[in-house]
Write a structure and sequence with these properties.
Largest sheet: 5 strands, antiparallel
Number of helices: 6
CATH class of the largest domain: Alpha Beta
CATH topology of the largest domain: N-terminal domain of MutM-like DNA repair proteins
Oligomer: single chain
Shape: elongated
Structural class: alpha+beta
């Protein structure tokens, strides 16, 4: 599913190709994806506006908007939230027919995309579109999303704030990393890659980690996140191909072990993450 790195690619695509283009029409008819809004409710306030900035905290993405018409802005603080769910992807077409995309990685052999999988669409006055494509229909589009439940962003948090957020718990460190109210943006694969890079066992209680280990974990999280963004997603992590039965650690060759931590399937090196 999309984790912080995949959502960042979608945010960057909107920033690169979707800003400052006046919205002429909105398809907000999918009542599940656009809940709690009724069909036409989002269209009524978005037509005539432009997206002015694309923002992200963790896996949550939103766009600031501004009124493109004359006179005062009728909704000066209106934002559009776009959440990719488990398999969402953003497609933006330019007025020249060019197409830009970001989000959940495209899997080879998945067949021709069905147009009905476009769950939410903005049509611009220049003829281009921004489409939120989601085969599984678990994405969300909504106005003015709340960020109150989210912790600091995993990509941006510094060492001191990371320690403050993580400390004070007896929970397994992987479960703590996965808690979006503690650190926003870490999913199952990014957590396994980060803990493998830091040489920390996923089930280790947080209160047993030394300050040095927490610093190492913070640095590993930043390194794993930046690498995933640069290479196309969390599936490109070094240890990710070894998350299966019979696999060996790509660093030392020891057997990879499997368990469930924080309710998620978890893999770690039997030698270096003891």
């Amino acid at each position: 599913m999309p984790e912080l790195p995949e959502v960042e690619t979608a945010r960057a695509v909107i920033e690169r190709a979707g800003l400052n283009r006046e919205i002429a029409d909105v398809d907000d008819n999918d009542t599940y994806v656009c809940r709690p809004h009724q069909p036409g409710e989002m269209k009524a306030v978005l037509v005539g506006r432009t997206l002015t900035a694309a923002r992200r905290r963790g896996k949550t993405m939103w766009c600031e908007t501004a009124w493109a018409g004359t006179g005062d802005d009728p909704n000066p603080d209106l934002t559009l939230g776009l959440h990719l769910g488990m398999a969402g992807r953003i497609y933006i077409s330019g007025p020249d027919g060019s197409e830009h995309e970001g989000g959940d990685p495209i899997r080879l052999g998945t067949g021709t995309p069905n147009p009905s999988w476009d769950r939410f669409t903005l049509t611009f006055t220049d003829g281009g579109t921004l489409r939120m494509f989601d085969k599984r229909r678990l994405s969300r589009a909504r106005l003015d999303p709340s960020l109150e439940a989210l912790g600091p962003d995993a990509r941006l948090v510094d060492r001191a704030d990371f320690r403050t957020a993580i400390e004070g718990s007896k929970a397994p460190i992987k479960a703590r990393l996965l808690d979006q109210s503690v650190i926003a943006g870490v999913g199952n694969l990014l957590a396994d890659e980060t803990l493998w890079q830091a040489k920390i066992r996923p089930s280790t209680p947080v209160d047993e980690l030394s300050p040095r280990a927490l610093t190492r974990l913070h640095d590993a999280l930043h390194a794993a996140t930046e690498s995933a963004i640069a290479h196309g997603g969390v599936h490109t992590g070094v240890v990710i191909p070894a998350r299966h039965k019979g696999a060996s650690c790509p660093r030392c060759g020891a057997a990879m072990h499997r368990d469930t931590v924080g309710g998620r399937t978890t893999w770690w090196c039997s030698k270096e993450q003891r």
